[in-house]
Amino acid sequence: MIFYNKQHPQDMGAEEITAFLSHLAVEDKVSAEEVKALIRQLSGVYRLLVQLLYGMALLI
């Protein structure tokens, strides 16, 4: 992500993701609905990665 000097998202933790989403909402004036959509998409990607890497489904 360019926000974190092109750091790969898999190397980022919750703090970095939260800071990025806050930056979008405050600095880039992204609407709350768009931020919520991004959170849903990130959650879906996270679930898929867990399934691929560990062969298990998350029930959340």
From TrEMBL:
Q: Does the keyword DNA-binding apply?
A: yes
Q: Where is the Integrase SAM-like N-terminal domain?
A: 3-51
> Could you give a GO molecular-function term held by this entry?
DNA binding
Q: Does the keyword Heme apply?
A: no
Key words, A-Z: DNA-binding
Name the GO terms of the biological process aspect. Answer: DNA integration
Q: Which InterPro entries match?
A: Integrase_recombinase_N, Integrase_SAM-like_N
In Swiss-Prot or TrEMBL terms, this protein is called Phage integrase N-terminal SAM-like domain-containing protein
Coiled-coil segments: none
Domain of life (superkingdom): Bacteria
Originating species: Pseudocalidococcus azoricus BACA0444
